[in-house]
Amino acid sequence: MTKKDPKLSESELRIKYKEFEEEAVPHSDALYNYALKMTGSPDDASDLVQETLLRAFRFFDKFEKGTNCKAWLFRILKNTFINDYRKVSKEPDKVDYDDIQNFYENIKSTDVKSQHFEEDAFSDLLDDDISVAITKLPEDFRTVIILSDLEGFTYEEISDFVDCPIGTVRSRLHRARKMLYAELYGYAKDKGYVNEL
Hints:
mainly alpha; Rna Polymerase Sigma Factor, Chain: A; Arc Repressor Mutant, subunit A; 2 domains; 0% strand
């Protein structure tokens, strides 16, 4: 639970909680999906969403009611990701010597499980190929295609989110789709999704 804001009375705090739950919390799944695309890790995505919601609640009085809460939350998520990435990238890699000291002596052959390898390797193949193709896109193109085609934002909302003109958003989206088409064409042809005349 969040620390009580000393500036707010108990009833004001209840109202803030209620409004936040109505406006922001319904977008948690969309935030998680976008965070997962950005981080590539379910745990990191969950942490990023949690941090985003905490920051959003803290600054909820700055949110302009009647505007697009989802876009506001996505901007917070993006900024949180960028700031955390910068902080981590400036820290040197750390290794705990105790964790690796007896690594080879501690692992056992029973820890390696390969029985489900084939099933895991071929499950959701199309989704994996699309995800890989999307992650290969340069960041600017990846962002607009995720926001438009996966999250359903309008050009205006994306323009506001990435802080560039609508024409640039359209251009990036067009180029991103062309790059994805080129990347996935061979796969689609091999699987019979493309009919050649």
